Structure formats: C-alpha cells, structure tokens
## 1
Amino acid sequence: MEWSEEKSLCLVGNYKLHRNLWDSRHFDYFKKDVKTRTWNKIGLAVGASPADCKRKIMSLLATYRKEKNKIRTSKKEGSDEVYTTRWFAYNALQFLKLRNKPWDNRASLVVDNETPEVVSEPPPVRQPQQVRPATSVSDNKQLVTEDLAPEREFQTTAKRFRKDTEQSEFDIFGQSVASQLKSLPLKEALELQLELQQIITEKRLILLQQNCFANSMDSMILHSECKMSPE
C-alpha cells in the first residue's frame, strides 16, 4: 500500500490519540483484545487495513529511533554542528517522549533541536505604602471581619468541593465493575450487565413489596383504633 506523507501524518495523529498502544503504564496496554479494537478504529479513520496501519507505524518508529540516535551521537562527539533531522514525521512523533517522563512533567516537552523560549518577567513595582487613619475598636472589628471573609469563603468552598469529590465504597465498586465489563467481549459484557440489572431490579421489587405491606398494616391498625375509640 502506498503511504503519502500526508496520510502517514494522519496515521501518526490517530496513533497518538490511543495511549494504550504506546504507553506501557496505560491500564489497557497489555490487553490484546482492546488493542485489536483500537487498531480497527485507526484503520477506519485512515482508510487502510489494521494490519497495514500497524506495519506502517512500526516502520515509522524504526526511522524515528534512527534519527534520534543520529542527534544523540552528534551531541556526544562534541561537534560544533549538531545533526538536524529533516525527516517529515520526526516532530509528529515527539509525543513518544512522554513514555519516559514522570506524569507531572508531561506538559513540559521540548523537541530536539529546538531551544525553549525564555520569557523574562519585569521586576515587580513597589506601590507606595498607604498609612491608614486611626480607627476605633468597632472599626477594627469590622476590618478583621472583612479580612477574614475571603478566607472563610475559601474554606466553605473547599469543604463543599471535598464533599462533592468524596467517593463512597459503592462508587468505587461501580467503577471497578465498569472497568471489568470493558475488558470483556461485547456480547459477554452485555449479558453480564443484564444479569446484574435483573438482580438489582428484583431486590428493589422485594423492598417495594415490603414497604407496601408495612404501610398496609399501619393503615389497618389505625383503622381498627379509630373504630375502638369512643365517639
């Protein structure tokens, strides 16, 4: 199959979107069935068979490693002229550096042969200090209250955020079940989902019947007490 530069870059872009194919720390990296479905998606997006897409990516990755080695070698030799690659897909594959970087540093990716721009900030300008006029005790209390207002608002917002983000054991269990269902073939996953839903529905019906029975008994007792009470 013929691969133009434009089509190859399109393939690289789709490959970049699916981290489970190139990042060994992704939770789907070692799941062959998930990878197979991912390659099928890429094939549909690019307009090629999954096997052709996979072979082309392997070829591009091999060339990318060769170009990186050339740059690394030229730097070690102490030459005044560092090797500059002109290969069309080199910059497009720079996201692969994320595999070897800590998670917190993934936003700061510098491409080889490019010098990051350093932006210097102007020194802070000192504002003339204003002298507050003398205030009474009541004014001081008001000032303290006003100064603490932003802090109290922040604490209230933080508590509300923690409450919203806290997960119960049922939330964690639901996420675990969802993750396990995703790892199953679609047919088995749907069948298991149906069984779980049936169990939950049956339990809810039992509780509903019990509540209806309890309410009925309460009504009967109340009705009998009304009859027994003297007029």
## 2
Amino acid sequence: MANPTDDHGEIPSSLPGAVAASAAASATAATRDEDAACLRLGVMDSDKVEVLMIAEAAALLAKREADHQKLGHTYSLDVVNGLFRPAMNYCTRFDRIQNKTAVLAVRESFDARASELGLHAFEVAQLVNLMPADAEEAKAVIPSLREEGKIDNDVLNSLLMELTTFAK
C-alpha cells in the first residue's frame, strides 16, 4: 500500500483517485456483495484505493481549506458540494491523533507492522480510528480480527499500546 505522503513528507492536498473510487462505489454498491467482517470491501478491495485514517482525512481537509484561503477565495467550500464543513467537523471531532508528525509516524509504523502481521489496510485504519482499549474490544468492534489465527491477542495488545503513544 502506498504511503499517503509525497516526497517531502507532506500529506497531498487532493486525492483524485479517492474521488473516482467514491463515484465508482456509488455506481456499483447495489451490485457488490460487501461485508467488512469478511474484508469484502467492494471498491476498496482495489489496490488503487488508499484507505485513510480519520486523522489523514482531517489533514487533507485542513490543507484544502488553507489552500482555498491562500488563493483568496471568498466563497465557502461548501458551495462546491455542501459536504466540506460537515466532513471537516466530523474529522475534527473524531480525530484521535496528536498532530501531523504523529499522523505520519502512525502511518509509517502501522503500514510496516500490518504487512508483517497480515492485517488489511482497512483493519489498520479501524484500529487507529477507534483506538480500542485492548484486543478483546478490538475484536468486538472489528469482526475481521476474530478470524481464527488472524492475530494473537498479545500481539494485538502490544500494537494497541504502541498506538496510545500517538493519541491526543
């Protein structure tokens, strides 16, 4: 899975692939057999789609807003599609990571660990977004982690302890 940062460690200001994926998902959602518990994620199964943590989405939206203001636009970003402010409010409310540096560190650390442990990008994003207290809670809220032999509780608890060092 590709890192969501550019060559300078910056979070990109736009994700055209995500927009296209969103449109494709809307068009085909009714015909897909999706089940997050089994990691059948519809259009998100594609290698071309980046699974974002809420903290990354918050950073992208904040960058978009700053760019908008820097360009001197006087109209609200909600004029474009009516969803900017609600999305920004949601991300601000549920973002659990301290700052941009921590967001980048979480992505780097957890992408590497996920590969080693056989975790799907969706599972990693859910662990970061939800920050469950322990392995039992993680498996209760992320059903795909319950799969027999998926991940040992001790390993998952260790991963969750590491995650708490980045929390607000």
## 3
Amino acid sequence: MRINDTMPENLHRQGNWYQGRPIQTKHLLGNPTLIVFWSVSCNSCLVAIRQLSRLQSKYNDAQILFIHTPLMEEDNNLNLIRNKSSQFNVHGSKIADRDESLSKLFQVKYVPAFYLFDQQGKLRYIQSGKSNTSLLDNKLARLYRK
C-alpha cells in the first residue's frame, strides 16, 4: 500500500477474527483508523503495542485493528496469539492473519507495522520495523487538527 491509497474494502472477510466482530471498512470511516501488524515472536512489536495504550487514551475515538502475522511456523498457534494479545492494555479488534493474505495485501515487510488511515479511509502514514510511536502520535495529532 502507498500513501493516499484507500483502505481495503474486504477486511471483514480476511483472517481469523479472534477478538471483536468482523468490521466492514465502511464502519471504520469517520474516525482515524490504525492498523497494526505484529507477531508473537517480535519483541519490538510488544514494546510498540504497550506504547499504543498511551496513544489510545489520548485519541480515544480512533479505531485500532491488530493483525497478527506469523514470522515463523510456531507463530500460527492461535492459543499463543490469544494469550499474548490478552496482555495488551489496548482495545481493538484482533485478527490472526494465518495465511498472510492481509500481510500481502498491505505489503508488510517488517513488523511492527503501522498503517494510519484518515477519517475518509485514505492512507496517511506508514511506519514499519520501529517500536517508537512518537511519529505516529504526531501524525494522529495532525489528523485531529484537520
């Protein structure tokens, strides 16, 4: 995906939704949406997701979708994914991308990966491979000023 691309329409048909109901893209419009790709075997991912708790408090109407993508075969264990994600102090729907169809759709190369969409569903920011969320905070602040 590239900046200004539109949020994919078929998110609700992808992956294994293990927390929250499948959400159609049209229901995400109106508020900024953050899509977070992570993996249970990625320590940087866990650091980044802990930092998202602060951002979620600050921007409490932003939607967050967590998409787990496997880095190795052992990462496909749904119980492990559920247990690890239950430790997050953030709210949002959670999807296991066991066949990596969403990862391919978003062209994820590194995790953690953050895809920030504006209120109209346009991609405004991409960050991958870094756990620091300060730039993400700045981009969210800009979306709320518009």
## 4
Amino acid sequence: MMEPTALESSKESARDAALSAAPGWQWSERPPSLFRRFQFGSYGQTRQFLDRLAEQSDALGVQPQNINFGTTYVNVTISASGPNLSESECRLAAELGRLATA
C-alpha cells in the first residue's frame, strides 16, 4: 500500500477540518467547496434564513459562490477562495447549519 503524498494528506486534512467544522455539508474536491440543501416548512422560514445568511455572510466577509432557492428550500455552495477552504468559509458553513436548526 502506498503512503499518501504530502499534497494528498494536506487535501484530506483540509476536507476533514471543513467537514468537522460544518457537519451536514457535502465536500467537493474540485474546486474545494462545501454544498448543502436546507429545507423549510414555509416560504417565510426560507426568506428568514436567506436574510440571516446575508447578515452572516457580510459579518464574516465571505460570499457563497452559489445560492439557489425555491419556496421551501435553499441550496448553498461555499467554494474556497484559495487552495483550501479558509477558517471564515468553514465558520460561515457552520453558522448556516446552526441558523437552519434555530
């Protein structure tokens, strides 16, 4: 069995750190990013989440790459601004997960 290269270990560490900080998100390797679909019971809840997403995004200085929504769902993709997700990008993902269950 071959040992992982330093680059592979670095990528795995970044992935593990991101998923640990933001449970419930899906990891994508190229580019390094997190994706999650949030479901809500009504449009009012969806709209409230979108407003809070904007507030958190502004507060952390992190803008999701993609936000797609319908009446009762929001899809969010947060892509790395560098070679790996930053602490702020992971913090935004974690905060959005918390907001969705609050």
